[in-house]
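Appendix B. Chain record.
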Amino acid sequence: MTTPPRKLLPLDRAFARINDLAAIAESETVALAASIGGRFLYQDICAEHDVPPFKNSAVDGFALPVTAQAGETFSLKQHLPAGRIAAPLERDEAAQVFTGGMIPNNTAAIIMREDTEKTVSGLRLNRAAQAGAHIRAQGEDFARNAVMFRAGDRLDSRHIAALAVAGLSKVALVKPLRIGVFSAGNEVQDFGTTLQEGTIHDGNRPALCHLLQRFGMNVIDLGIVPDQADTMAAFITEQQEHFDVLFASAGMSESDTDHTANTLNRLGESIFWQLAIKPARPVGLARFKNKNGLCYVVGLPGNPASCLLAAWLIGLPLLHRLMGGVARLPKPHYVESGFSITKKPHRREFIRVQIDQSGIAHRVFPSGSATLSSLAAADGVLDLPEGQDRLEQGDRVVYYPFTHF
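Structure tokens predicted for this chain:
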């Protein structure tokens, strides 16, 4: 009797199951001057004061207390370089102002310096001064106590600049998760060693360590575990006591010799196993309870291209969720397909492509699950959804650059 095929889980449903998981991250307060780029906020951040903290000028010019027409004249009463306190203006007075400098509270308009000319008593307008022109309102960027960024946001130089000008010197960040990375297989050798007959060098482990370190995690390389059932079970049972998440590559298919999958399904609480995606179908997630709380184990395919794609598609979104964020793919881009392809409608496919200067996507070959040359040459992947069986040249299609994972 033939065993019926396993029902594969759609990627969106895998994300739903991940988002049902509770965050496990702890917080730590870190100085803004520290190297916090790439790390995640533990809680919402509010502005300490208005940004900007006072009404100021967007240009070098003259502040006027009223709107005015070309030809009108004003006496020049104040000279206000940045850092000087401004006083209110009378109806016929103007103040010379500079970019970023404080302006009088009753300023109605600012006219640029090049649109005026000096007179004996002050200045004449060569064009009309429109209401609100070139005025930066107090708090127009961030209002005092307004939420600037949300828990789970990943910081970069843009956020750090905003936090600094809003008066923050410290922020509560997610404490980096403890991550262990290992590969499974009797045929796998450490990179840098002399290959024995019938063996291959392990590229998955160093690639995963680099990816996860770049994501701000505390990563430990746990080496290679032999393909033996008892050895794998004992290894995972021991290591899950010491880490928040384990990443395992290889041994995730359905055969009797795939001991990573067998161990996760037998000893752990399986959250999912095998997704309706290509490549990277044999990816799984399981949960273990230990004396410290929980450890999640991400089982990734052994084929190198599939392993990295699965880490991008599942591993990083899982970490984002465990740190208080939402598991999802990056914001989609849209490009024009430069080729046609037929696919199976019951699965979602991610096609490696290069993007030319016109924004057209071209497929990169060879495209096998084990092929790293095309993965390294590609700029990103096209996302062909379930239900679609054909992509035509010229179609508009979702595209994810690798740089956005």
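Further analysis of this model is presented in Appendix C.
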